Amino acid sequence: MKTNPRTITLYDTPLSQQNGYAPNMWRVRLILNYKKLNYRTQWVEIPDIPRTMRQIGAPSTKKDKDGRPIYVLPVIVDPSRNPPVILSNPSQIAEYLEASYPARPIFPDGSKALQTLFVHYITEVWARPLVTVMVSANAARLSERSQQHLFGGPPQQLSAAEYERGWAQVLNEFNFLSAVLEKNSGEDGDGVIVSGHELTYSDFAICSFLIWIERVSPNDGWLRVRDWHNHPSGPEQILFGI
């Protein structure tokens, strides 16, 4: 079947099976889904990211200490523009999609600065202990080739005590965020949506990490998170009620 020439391409990294898992990629994927945009996924193994991104002319995300470009997914290509738009930073992608496809907005008027600050908190503070406890489970589900590229083989495991201490820190962060969101209960919202009633960019940032836990650690991490807040559904159901 031919691809619509106006279809957006999302470059994503698969697990050992062809499905997405990484929070930054899911943040963009959720926005594309929410805005009901036509897109396709191009799967790229981690060792192939630099070569593939250079081939399509994607901008680097940052530079290493020697000034060489570092390429990190997600990347989107929107061929409906002339020339095609190629972006590689999830926040820049979100702002571009909002400006180019304003239906079903994710940045209500006057909220962009505050949401940018909130998403920075989610990714750099709230999720930090989560990354520590999830890295081994995440790596174990990557292909052997990707594991070798990232770690030189299987990654080092946390001790049982370190692992449980890590999850205790995750629980503290989740409880703090839950208490903050509860301020939107009652007339101000349902205590789940960051802005009270309307889904925004901030909600996609939170949900992307929940999806990561469910996909990578369904029988441990996700069971912990689900039981903390007594919700039997998946992360997308928790957020979207679908």
Automatic annotation (TrEMBL):
Span of domain GST N-terminal: 12-105
Gene3D superfamilies attached to this UniProt entry: 1.20.1050.10, Glutaredoxin (3.40.30.10)
Tree of life domain: Eukaryota
Signal peptide: none
Pfam assignment, any one: GST_C_7
Record's protein name: GST N-terminal domain-containing protein
